[in-house]
Amino acid sequence: KAGVTQTPRYLIKTRGQQVTLSCSPISGHRSVSWYQQTPGQGLQFLFEYFSETQRNKGNFPGRFSGRQFSNSRSEMNVSTLELGDSALYLCASSWRETQYFGPGTRLLVL
Amino acid sequence: AQSVTQLDSQVPVFEEAPVELRCNYSSSVSVYLFWYVQYPNQGLQLLLKYLSGSTLVKGINGFEAEFNKSQTSFHLRKPSVHISDTAEYFCAVSDREIKAAGNKLTFGGGTRVLVKP
What we know:
The complex is a heterodimer. By secondary structure, chain A is an all-beta fold. In chain A, 0% of the residues lie in helices and 57% in strands. Chain A has strands at residues 5-7, 10-13, 19-24, 31-38, 42-50, 53-57, 64-68, 74-78, 87-95, 98-101, 105-109. Chain B is mainly β. Chain B has one helix at 98-101; strands at 2-6, 10-14, 19-21, 23-27, 31-38, 44-50, 56-58, 64-68, 73-78, 87-95, 106-107, 111-116. In chain B, strands 2, 5, 6, 10, 11 and 12 form a 6-stranded mixed β-sheet that branches.
């Protein structure tokens, strides 16, 4: 089976812009989770979607949002970008209790 | 609420020597336990997991971990490391009640392993 894919892999934006990241889960996986990884805060949970519904949400401001489509693909959106949003954004798809991660999207906000 | 503490932020080790990475967790509910590895500029790769049963879990690349419920620990070990084991290692936990709580991983801060020749 193909693994989790994330697009784009690299992205440069400026403050105030918005960005949309995409994640395609492993075939058959219905749960998709998103994480932010920064040197200062480490790996932090953003949100999880299961069958197109947000099932869990981390402590991030409302500028961070996501959605899941009927084919389980997921997108996350960050509006009004701030310098502190520069990070590696990781998507994971789940089979039961186990999460499998994609390669991540590295976002740089200038 | 859950928290994970990885006691060593960096571990230098010589090639072919053993290594142990320590992980302690705190949780008010029963959890699943995981170790992931991250190579430079890559995502996370699952090394091993503890779901139930035997407390000694074997994973990929010769790694193993032991779950100790009384000490709430899940330490990772490898008897002989290779240069290619140079990476960052993350311990993580998730709530067993996935249907109710969702599937959320709480990670430790990571341990950087540097294998020296």
